[in-house]
Predict the structure.
Amino acid sequence: MSLLARVALLAYPRSFRREYGNEWSRTIVDMATHGQHGAMRVSGTVIAEAFTTAIRMRWENLMKPTKTLLTVVAATIALAALVMGSEAIAVLAVAVVALAALQFAGKDRPIAPTDPAISRRWYLWIAGAAGAFLIGLGVLALDGDDLTSAGWAVWMLSWAGAAVLGVIGIGLGTVRAVNSRG
Amino acid sequence: MHIIVALAAGERHGYGIMRDIEGLSGGAVKMGPGTLYGSIKRMIDQGLLEEAEERPDPLLDDQRRRYYRLTNLGHRVGAAEHARLAALIDAARLRQLGLAGLA
């Protein structure tokens, strides 16, 4: 494979390179040797795709974790606001709207239980929930009985986050168990 | 839909799909390898395609090539899209779309 193709392949996300890199390079060799495509045209296609298709793939790969993170943060704020009471209803409403928009807008849902790549790692969500729960416990241990306002906020958000992560983890694990049984 | 039509004739490797698409469209649709494998990946995730386990001739073929085929869902989606496009073409023909302007 030419140096140009090797460099162009680096423009694609690592997961794509790992899964399709060999075939991609084989196809370029086929295009250059068997097709009616001249070497210049094949090079042009490879370069053009590095700036269009590869960038789009990277963007899609980036957006999924980002949307997932934003979804979890929005759900955490919504839950914390719900527990805090009526003065936080405005925050709750904004968070719920943001959450709904993130989950249901567009075709690519960030936390899709049917996506095997996501549901396979359900235990990571449970581990995250345990971590957030421990942070809350740590705040309680450090701040003592009389929580400061900052300590209270961190404790509330960490336990709300633990609840959200735990619910997602249990949901993904359940879907995976049901699918593997079927 | 181009990939589904290409695979409706049977298993193909990536470059075979690419050539088929170019041939079927009379050269109007040229798919680069990045676009092709990106689409294949997405269609496998959606359950429309799957990788064929058997290779036509492993001795003669490059190991880097993988062969793809339509799943049952892929066949059904292709048939539904075929019916939808055929109905649209019939409607356009019925209304003599393109002919009225030329007369």
